[in-house]
Write a structure and sequence with these properties.
Helix content: 55-70%
Distance between the termini: 74 Å
Number of helices: 22
Low-confidence stretches: none
Number of domains: 2
Largest sheet: 2 strands, parallel
Length: about 525
């Protein structure tokens, strides 16, 4: 005996199909690879070629901030043997999985599904970084998995708790600072529980991926955190200057995208006004993350760090505005369409080489002509790799001062690519920013210690300043010595717990100890 689907189930399936198709078509029109994706991709190629998870094959340094994304990307590229489309495919799978979960995991009504989906589909920040080659799509999917688990009622088994904690653990493994988004909800969920002892096993199991990675990172790289954390956070720039630039990052978003920040503000206000503890804790997580973004000076990629808070906001708006959902959906669509260069009208001619005086740029518009799915035929990134043989035989003995992104990817594994921003150099990353007010968000250039490039080329310590040279000896033990020697582990302790006094007065050293150089970026 056959059963027939009810009209409501047909409508639900039709709406789900429509949302997935809209997401797919919009993703295909906007898919691209960012310049920073080249940093991870070079490490992926080294890793799957047996050269280690490093940017430069002669030095163990973690230059990526997304271990889980790196591992998944490495597995897919190792299977496919292809770089460009594999990277985009992983992003697409995460994005479609997210919209399916948005419609099926939260018990939203059709009007709530449409409203929440429109908030995401109309946002420049969210759509631009649903591809890009960076970790955002996986972060969004894991964050929504966390939210779905949060709204499941606690039961007498550990299934719900394990799902909640594992989603949070994997999210943090994908990008460490995203812990701010979920920490308030985790804390409140724990506070409201009466059977806290039952959480011991789920916590232990969920912590395994994080503990495993941090253990590997300490053994292999000699540090718990990626090298980029020091390069971008320990800059020595005054907090007031970072705050001013961070606020300018939000203002840039408001000028380019009329939907993203207003939607986040609406969600936070709505949760405070009439949300339950779940909405309020998620809104607090979004607010904490925004404050963190402002405190570090924002970013040079317009909107990138606003996409995850927007996802939480879309869920909150969907839950709390179920009544006037249709009217609000119309307003959301209008804001998306009225934004300058609306994402729904983006095509193959999308481009814009301009950046704001504060150094923020529409990264997709800048790189889309060369790496966009619609505009790159064949993709420029693939053309640049066609003539490279990723079989490492011998370092040429040359350290080329170059950028680390797609251009660094196209240099090949036999070249040691050195950048004055310190992203891939464990000494430079630990030095303060060296050009005063001349900096761009995410790009903190240092003056290079005299003799460092020669040290890389020769394999001998030739740094001119005696105290810096001694410290560099320890850093070389971290990144170049055999893993298990007692000497290396003593150096790991020294480097991670102290720094020489010369670092405090580094910017005061003259040309006798620092290579004369001009800043890459100028602030106005």
């Amino acid at each position: 005996m056959s059963s027939t689907a009810t009209p409501s189930s047909w409508k639900a399936r039709l709406l789900l199909t429509g949302i997935l198709l809209a997401a797919l078509l919009l993703w295909l029109r906007t898919a691209w690879l960012s310049d920073d994706s080249g940093i991870t991709l070079r490490v992926v190629l080294n890793f799957i070629s047996g050269l280690g998870p490093n940017f430069n094959v002669d030095e163990r340094v973690q230059v990526f901030t997304h271990p889980l994304w790196f591992l998944l990307l490495s597995a897919l590229i190792a299977i496919s043997g292809e770089l460009y489309y594999s990277t985009l495919l992983l992003s697409l799978l995460c994005t479609l999985g997210l919209f399916y979960l948005l419609c099926r995991g939260l018990q939203f009504s059709p009007r709530q599904q449409l409203l929440a989906a429109l908030v995401l589909l109309g946002s420049r920040a969210f759509i631009d970084y649903s591809s890009s080659g960076l970790e955002n799509p996986l972060s969004h999917l894991l964050l929504l998995l966390f939210v779905v688990a949060l709204y499941r009622p606690p039961v007498a088994s550990t299934r719900r708790d394990l799902g909640l904690l594992l989603a949070a653990s994997l999210l943090v493994l994908n990008r460490l600072d995203l812990v701010l988004l979920v920490a308030p909800a985790l804390a409140m969920d724990f506070y409201l529980r009466r059977d806290r002892l039952r959480l011991v096993l789920p916590i232990a199991l969920a912590a395994l991926p994080l503990l495993g990675w941090f253990g590997f990172s300490l053994v292999y790289y000699g540090a718990f955190l990626p090298n980029t954390a020091a390069a971008k956070l320990a800059t020595g720039i005054p907090a007031s200057s970072l705050l001013t630039t961070g606020l300018a990052y939000l203002w840039d978003s408001l000028q380019r995208d009329y939907l993203t920040l207003p939607a986040i503000a609406l969600a936070i206000a709505s949760a405070a006004w009439r949300g339950d503890w779940r909405e309020r804790s998620l809104a607090l997580g979004a607010l904490l993350y925004l404050l963190y973004v402002v405190s570090i000076g924002g970013d040079f990629m317009s909107g990138r760090f606003l996409a995850a808070p927007l996802l939480l906001s879309a869920v909150i708006i969907g839950r709390l505005w179920a009544g006037p959902a249709t009217e609000l959906a119309v307003l959301v669509a209008l804001l998306a369409l009225l934004s300058p260069r609306p994402v729904w009208l983006s095509g193959s001619d999308f481009r814009d080489p301009q950046m704001t005086p504060r150094g923020v740029a529409d990264e997709r518009a800048f790189y889309f002509p060369n790496t966009g799915l619609l505009s790159a035929t064949p993709p420029a990134i693939q053309r640049g790799l066609e003539k490279l043989d990723w079989r490492y035989e011998k370092l040429r003995g040359s350290a080329e001062i170059y950028t680390l992104g797609l251009a660094g990817l196209q240099r090949g594994p036999e070249i040691h690519v050195f950048d004055p921003l310190g992203l891939a150099n464990p000494l430079v990353s630990r030095l303060p920013q060296g050009f005063g007010e001349h900096w761009r968000p995410g790009h903190f250039q240092r003056r290079i210690p005299r003799g460092l490039v020669e040290s890389i080329e020769s394999g001998e310590n030739r740094i001119a300043h005696p105290e810096l040279a001694t410290w560099y000896d320890d850093i070389r033990l971290l990144s170049r010595a055999p893993l298990w020697t007692a000497e290396r582990w003593a150096a790991i302790w020294r480097v991670n717990t102290s720094q020489p006094e010369v670092v405090e007065r580094y910017t005061e050293l003259g040309d006798e100890y620092l290579v004369p150089a001009q800043p890459f970026f100028t602030r106005y």
